[in-house]
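Side project, low priority. Logging it here so it doesn't get lost.
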Amino acid sequence: MACLGLEFQIDGGIVRGPGTTAVAVREHGGHGSGHVDLGYALRLGEGEGPVVWDCTAGLGRTEEERLQNAVRMWRTTTASAVVELLERRGLHGDHFAPGAVGGVAGWHAVQGPACVFGFRSGPLGDWVAEHQLLPAVADAVLPYLTEPALNGVKFFFGGRADDEVSEVRVNGEPVAAASAALGRLAWPRGERLAWARCFVLLAADPLSLGAGGATPGPVSVPDTVAPLTSSAMLRRWLWR
């Protein structure tokens, strides 16, 4: 989290951050080592305060290495989106107004950087940087936005030709129609294994969520069509 300019401290079963923010950690059952659930709480201590849960997994030779890479991937994609939602500085993600190109109707979208990894992952990374995923699955996702204030949408896709995966989860639950729509997109399928992971937050009213102890930046929440940062923000490498 220090890479995002934040300081967190371990406190029992949670990791406390600035103000009322915290990250809770729990094991993800049934998927082996290197797989963990992380919940980013915006208002710790409030029973109805939003918590963005996400499962993450990492590659590596040892369990410690797999967990380190899993948390790094989560920080790059999911945590970056949450921090950008709270701080509104345009440093850790892109903002899309409701109905804007790259967004969806009725919700303010914040997308963190993409994480592209594997072997010869360059073509997949280039494709992700040049395409908007959320509009392609919006019709399938909208019925599953059941949280009134804040919803999380995760994209995970890739693999190789004839051995690929495409998955969209809303608030941690897979959405079959959205996953199928993602799988129909023309992202490159190569001979070597490569994957991409992206995370988007959809907020009904981002200003009402508060800053969680952070001082919001000068960037105003847009109400027109332009994203606040370049599409290059959407690509960041973990492994090559």
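Brief comment: The mean pLDDT is 85.
Revisit when time allows.
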